[in-house]
Each structure stands twice: as C-alpha cells, then as structure tokens.
C-alpha cells in the first residue's frame, strides 16, 4: 500500500484541508503482508473520524492500511473537525464538502473509481452518523454505508444536559426542533428512502457495543430501519466506545463491503 498525506484547498470551506489516502499496491516480497490491486481505477472507502479526532486517527489507532491491502481497496480519510459532516447553521458547509467536493478532488488527484458500485463510506461515532447520512442522502453515489458505534439519534444528543455541548449542537444543527424531520435526521432520511421506491438503495451496516453510551441510540435506529423494511446488517457484542472495538469491527466492514470480484 502507498500512504499519502494530501494537503489541498477547499473552495467549499474556504480553507486549507487535509486527507490521508491509502492506495493499493501489488506486492509479494513485503514482509508481513501482501498487497492486491483489482485492475483499473480503485474501489474506494471514504472513512470518517469521530468528534474529537482528525484525518490521522484511523491510521494511528488501527491497522487499516494492513487490513485494506488484501482487498485492493483505496481508503480516503478526510479532516472534518467537529462538524457532524453537516452544512452548519454557524460554520462551514461540511456536508457539501464531504459529499461533493471531497470525492471530486480525490478522484481527480488519484486513480479512484467514480462508479457508484465502487464507492463506499464508513465511520465511527460522529463519523458513523456522517457515513449513514451520506449513504441515505446520496444513494446515487454510494453502494454501501457503515456505522461503527454511530451517533445515530442526533436529536437525543441534546438530552445530555451539558449547556456548552447543547450550544455546540445548535451551532451545527440549530435547535432540536429544527433537526427533527430535517435532512440531518437519520430517522427522517430512512423514512424518505423507504417511501421513494428507488432502485438505488445502499447496503447498510451498523454495529455497537452493548456497554457503549450510544447503545440505546443504536437500538432505536436499528428497530426503526427494520420496521421500515430496509435491509440492514446489524451486529452487537460486549464493547465500549473505544479503539479496540473499532479496530476489530473495521475488519468486519471490509469483509462485508460489496466489492466486485
């Protein structure tokens, strides 16, 4: 695998930004691993970070480069700050950035496939919310979306009782009433997708540890999706909101992805 730290300017955000990119490389003599390429432009996983992290965190806390090597898949890890991958009420247009500008730039810089069936998104915590939102709002662009311990019920975050955190959420989403039933509400988005009768429905994956503080949020979202009749791969087992769990589960995600043979 080749690892590239890419510094670039975002017209959407109006600032310089960063993404880490792992590109497949066919290798046979590399000690400890072999690399694979699928031929042509690479299938790509856009891998999103959590609230307190950045573009470097997946490389620092997991073996994502080693895991991805055997699948011949590229991995793009952008910096999105504390944005919830949202066009913020007070701040940058981070959903437009990650859904439109980032793939366009990454696919112009690197040999990445622009085919829907080769494009996937996953993330943890805030990034799990972002991954599901990308898949649900842009089913024409993503064949699969995966959430690891995701903040699947954003409106419930307002119930935490932390005044500073609530104010931060309001700068991102507006009031909880503005969030509910909007394009930033995953429950609303799944309802819209179920009612659309679209043939372009991304495969969905969700996991959460049973000791995670977001576990009840994930159960509510899981039950809602299943009630709507949308296909969902759901996994749970003992685990907390921590990197040992995510290092294991990202391997499950890579195995689950509908990669073309």
TrEMBL record:
PANTHER family: DIACYLGLYCEROL ACYLTRANSFERASE_MYCOLYLTRANSFERASE AG85A, ENTEROCHELIN ESTERASE-RELATED. It holds the Pfam family Esterase. This is Acetyl esterase. Keywords: Hydrolase. One of its GO terms (molecular function) is hydrolase activity. Its EC number is 3.1.1.-. The keyword Amino-acid biosynthesis does not apply. Gene3D superfamilies: alpha/beta hydrolase (3.40.50.1820). It comes from the Bacteria. The keyword Ligase does not apply. It comes from Paenibacillus nuruki.
């Amino acid at each position: 695998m080749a690892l590239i730290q890419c510094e670039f300017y975002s017209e959407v955000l109006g600032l310089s930004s960063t993404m880490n990119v792992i590109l497949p490389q066919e290798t046979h003599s590399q000690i400890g691993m072999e690399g694979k390429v699928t031929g042509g432009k690479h299938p790509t996983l856009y891998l999103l970070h959590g609230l307190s992290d950045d573009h470097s965190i997946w490389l620092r806390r997991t073996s994502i480069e080693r895991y991805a090597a055997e699948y011949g898949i590229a991995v793009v890890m952008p910096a999105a700050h504390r944005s919830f991958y949202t066009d913020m009420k007070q701040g940058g247009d981070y959903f437009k950035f990650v859904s439109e500008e980032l793939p366009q730039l990454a696919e112009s810089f690197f040999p990445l496939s622009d085919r829907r069936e080769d494009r996937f998104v996953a993330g943890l915590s805030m990034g799990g919310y972002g991954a599901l939102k990308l898949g649900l709002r842009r089913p024409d662009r993503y064949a699969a979306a995966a959430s690891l311990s995701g903040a699947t019920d954003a409106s419930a975050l307002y119930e935490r009782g932390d005044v500073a955190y609530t104010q931060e959420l309001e700068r991102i989403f507006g009031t909880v009433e503005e969030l509910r039933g909007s394009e930033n509400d995953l429950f609303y988005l799944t309802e819209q997708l179920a009612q659309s009768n679209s043939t372009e429905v991304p495969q969905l994956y969700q996991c959460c540890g049973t000791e995670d503080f977001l576990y009840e949020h994930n159960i509510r979202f899981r039950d809602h999706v299943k009630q709507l009749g949308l296909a969902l791969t759901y996994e749970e087992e003992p685990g907390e909101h921590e990197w040992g769990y995510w290092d294991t589960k990202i391997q499950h995600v890579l195995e689950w992805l509908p990669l073309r043979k």
